[in-house]
Model the fold of this input.
Amino acid sequence: MGIKTVFVAALATITVSVLVAQPFSTSAREQFPRATADAPKRQQREGGRAARAAVGRPGGLRYERPQAISQRTTGAAESNATITAVPGIKVGHFTLAERPTGCTVILVDGDAVGSVSQQGGAPGTRETDLLNPLNMVDKVNAIVLAGGSAFGLEAATGTVRWLEEHNIGWPAGASKVPIVPAAILFDLGVGGNPKVRPTADCGYKAAAAATTAPVPEGTIGAGAGATVGKFGGPGRSMKAGIGSAAIVLPSGLIVAAIVAVNAVGDIIDPATGKVVAGVRNPDGTFADARKILRDGGTRQPPRAGENTTIGVVATNAKLSKSLAARMALMANDGYARAISPSHTSGDGDTIFSLATGRWDGNADITVIGALAAEAVADAIVRAATQATGVAGIPAARDLRK
Done:
């Protein structure tokens, strides 16, 4: 258990509304805005990836986003490059005031075909067997991501209650049963009393707060207590959080992701190969987990359940349950691109998939799965660059001030 690019289209701009109880940090969106049309361009990545618009980061840290939806000049929408760019997807966070932890609800407007890929060695999940293509139920109403280790799975109960009150769920005779898979990450050692963790009330409030607005990122919701770079043991890790990214093709196909990053490993920008957040040397520079491993250096082995990266990838394509499972499986490649090492015995790495079916185009699963991996990798880097430090644990933005 869990103790377990590139082209974009315009979408409607909507005001964000997220319920947060005295969050430990505000969203970094204002401090670190997404790319603008006049942002400098870097050379295209080898393999033909479209030029990314560079977004400034503190102390010279830079992360290249796929060309953001905000760069579009046509239509009214210019700001949403997160998972809520997928029609039918809403997101709500709730962050506890007493300690940096919380939950994030990915709510489906209606329902969606869903599946999951679980590749880590120490997962903490709920309703994942149901998502196996061999099993009957093929619709999902919401997915809950939460801190609090296994205790945080209780947040899903609150989301189920909110859905029931709104008569949403799988038809079962006289009732409708909400289908709410969930996954948790371990943050009990961050910032205070470990008995402060997400409860059913957290899941209820996050569901009630869910909107189609651009998703706030960083130290919020399920990412409030997330950390990375734990190869060097206590005192050398860094703050991460929750991040989101969307890829929109001219055809109208959208693939997007949201990821809460609490990894043993370092966060690597796939565009540059450089560490964004991870194990720190005493002088505040990055030790680089890849170098530690190659040099045979000493490290503290990851302890089962005390890490985990959890997320959701979504598309507006129409997919069967088996194709949704393939999308989730391919999306997991994004973990390996942006986290080093990933899928360890001490990580409960899990990614859910949702297909809302709002797009009538040809759903080529090879394309969708490849884009899903790209979106996941981008979301992971966003989770690190948008985070703010808490409880004496610095974030990327804190390093070179």
Notes: The first strand starts at residue 53 and ends at 56. DSSP finds six helices and 18 strands in the chain. The radius of gyration is 19 Å. Residues 92 and 210 are 4 Å apart (CA to CA).
